[in-house]
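Why does residue order matter? Because the sequence determines the fold. Keep that principle in mind as you read this record.
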Amino acid sequence: MAIPERFLSDNEQIARAFRPHWKALIGPVLVFDLILAVGIVVAIVANIAAWIPIVAAIVLGLLVVAKPVLEWWFTSYVITNERLVVRSGILSREGKEIPLEVINDVAFSQTFGERLFRSGDLLVESAGELGQSRYSDIPLPEEVQALIYELREDRITALNTGSTPTDQLATLAQLHRDGVLTDDEFNEKKRKLLDEI
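Structure:
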């Protein structure tokens, strides 16, 4: 579930890796149970071999629940000391990486039912073209929010400690090239940095 070591930078370490909360599987399991129950009732009522409707119900149930279960299995969240990484997809894959230093805000929300299951949603707001990203069915969202803030502060401190203005300009330029900072944001931050020199 965690990202392979070869995708980590030299000093990057994984702080937490997880899948969406298991409650996302409750609906598919209930649908499977319902289809199986209908197959059993048909087997009892019908005058055909009892195993035919049951086997048909099992096959139909597996076809119906396979996609949501596989989507849950192949979705992963990884928080490192440098970035938030999200990967999803069964046959085709997609991913998103948000550097911690560009995260402006992390908000979580929970309904009453989600509080019972200790899950919820996270809304990550970041600078640049990334904007807002909403992630659902996050286990322990309040703890994940606190972890992201803690790692973000450590990351910003590490980037600023002992760095020269030249190093800071290089970091800004890299963030601009990566599309994290827009032209206006890059120019504004560059101007502020040059004013401090």
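The chain has six helices and seven strands.
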